[in-house]
Amino acid sequence: MEERGVAPNVVCFTTLIDIFCKEGNFVEAKRVIQEMERKGERPNTVTYNALIDGYIKKGKMKEAHKLKKEMEDKGLMPDTYTYSSLIHGECIDGKVDEALKLFHEMYRRDLTRNIVTYTAMISGLSKDGRTDEAFKLYDEMKREGLTPDDRVYHSLVGSLHTAKS
């Protein structure tokens, strides 16, 4: 791009990072961050979300949490997307209590919990056999004005089936 007189900006760099993360090439993704900073572009929350989401999709939760801390240390605030990704990853790993801590941290930070956040949490609780807690979150989600989708209902029905067995 630069050869053609186009200086990459934060959007271009973040797109590259996202591509490398989807390929599982975290070395290159981190190199892009370094190059970005060297060129005077500051990574933003979206940049970190691309990295965090990439690590989570490859099952690297420890690294994802380190990146959340790194972004906070740099003065960037994790957003709903950041937390929803981390909650989803913790639930996939079977660490539902860790996911609940993040879920409650969102409330303390006054972040909106959206359908993705609730779906991840309800699914995690359901798979963990915590049917009552899953239904409490379902009720809370509806009180918040969110419309449950097929994934929510699938998780709740599965939870009831597991509890019955």
UniProtKB/TrEMBL annotation:
Q: What cellular component terms from Gene Ontology apply here?
A: mitochondrion
- Whereabouts are the PPR repeats? 9-43, 44-78, 79-113, 114-148
* Keyword Coiled coil found: no
Q: Which SUPFAM superfamilies match?
A: HCP-like
One Gene Ontology biological process: mitochondrion organization
Q: Which terms does the record give in the GO molecular function aspect?
A: mRNA binding
Which of UniProt's keywords are assigned here?
Repeat
Matching PROSITE patterns: PPR
Tell whether Repeat is among the UniProt keywords. yes
Source taxon at top rank: Eukaryota
Cite the Pfam families for this sequence: PPR_1, PPR_2
Record family assignment: Belongs to the PPR family. P subfamily.
Q: Which PANTHER family does its entry note? A: OS07G0671200 PROTEIN (PTHR47934:SF2), PENTATRICOPEPTIDE REPEAT-CONTAINING PROTEIN PET309, MITOCHONDRIAL (PTHR47934)
Q: Which NCBIfam families match?
A: PPR
Q: What is this protein called?
A: Pentatricopeptide repeat-containing protein
